Amino acid sequence: MTTLVGARRDLGIYIHVPFCAVRCGYCDFNTYAPGEVEGATREGYVEAALEEMALARRTMQGDDRTVRTVFFGGGTPTMLDSAALTTLLEAVRGTWGLAADAEVTTEANPDSVSRESLQALARAGFTRVSLGMQSAVPHVLATLDRTHNPANVARAVAMAREAGLAVSLDLIYGTPGESLSDWRASLEAAIALEPDHVSAYALVIEPGTRMGGQLRRGEVQPTDPDTQAEMYELADTLLSRAGYAWYEVSNWARSPDQRCRHNVAYWRSQDWWGVGPGAHSYLGPRIGADGAEVPARRWWNVKHPRAYAARLGAGESPEADGEELGADDLRLERVMLRLRLSEGVDAAEVADRPEAVARLVADGLLDGAAAVAGTLRLTRRGRLLADLAVRALAF
């Protein structure tokens, strides 16, 4: 029997579906549009993912935990039909077992779902859909290379509600050419749909993406960082006014039970197995069947779907590389991840940095009253400078 070191951790499963109808110009995720995955099929992907789950079960032999959360990400998971997604979820259930109150999420584009597909997913045990709205403004969607009609968002939300699924909307701010009034329009449109959860991420233009090339050639101009900060503050103001509370720097929920439990598990350093090409996994420290302590470990799979399927088809692990994490590494990650949450991080984690804490409080990045009480919690200003706060406390 495998025994966990420290408090019992939850187990989550992430399933990476690497297919998209088109590749958006800003995207640097491990995704592939039609014509980019020669020699790799969706059917072959499902078979390989099932084989990886069998490998995971062998690797975790003796671990009696059932899965608390499942998250289908991508890519666009709903590029697979509902029968394929159901097959993958059934494999999770058969491999580990699903908790009775498990959260099961799939990401989706507004134009990649139908009433029938959403109802089929709900019957299979999916509880939540995260829709890539990104913007409600046509010229912003065009710059992002998003192909959906903004009206499809409302249609998808209504169909998801009809199926009994919780709804999250994903937004992006800081797109080249997006004004503050454009961003306000997108926020107001999202709030009007009354989702359970909203995520809002600042656009980062990565080298190697199509938009990165446009930036290099001077075809687009990056949004001024001060304007992006104003956009974040506007999001927090409007969402708070509408009844959404922030619980992580980029995430707001209408109530605590509508937070994305799967993502919270990442930020709380729980365990997860990532299935699929390029997926990352993490298992914390535990005691093996032989009584020896097994250190915490993170690893990641080969990226290309063809290489992923070939490895598993040959009975080999799809792992590309990995790393063991010692006590100092785990402490650093606890500070880095938990500081992003509204609950904050225990001040005892950085008891050796009293001057850094005092400076961050004086600069308005940490809540002074909470710090005195023993919890380090970011202020709104601190959320804008979260990376700076982490560097001051943990490095």
TrEMBL record:
Q: Which PROSITE patterns match?
A: RADICAL_SAM (PS51918)
Summarize the protein's role: Probably acts as a heme chaperone, transferring heme to an unknown acceptor. Binds one molecule of heme per monomer, possibly covalently. Binds 1 [4Fe-4S] cluster. The cluster is coordinated with 3 cysteines and an exchangeable S-adenosyl-L-methionine.
Q: Which InterPro entries match?
A: Aldolase_TIM (IPR013785), Coproporphyrinogen-III_oxidase (IPR034505), Elp3/MiaA/NifB-like_rSAM (IPR006638), HemW-like (IPR004559), rSAM (IPR007197), rSAM_sf (IPR058240)
The highest taxon in the source lineage is Bacteria
Q: What name does UniProt use for this protein?
A: Heme chaperone HemW
**CC annotations in GO:** cytoplasm
Please name the SUPFAM superfamilies in this protein's record: Radical SAM enzymes
Give the gene symbol: hemW
One Pfam family cited in the UniProt record for this chain: Radical_SAM
Gene Ontology MF terms: 4 iron, 4 sulfur cluster binding; coproporphyrinogen oxidase activity; metal ion binding
Organism (species): Demequina lignilytica
Q: What is the lineage of its organism?
A: Bacteria, Bacillati, Actinomycetota, Actinomycetes, Micrococcales
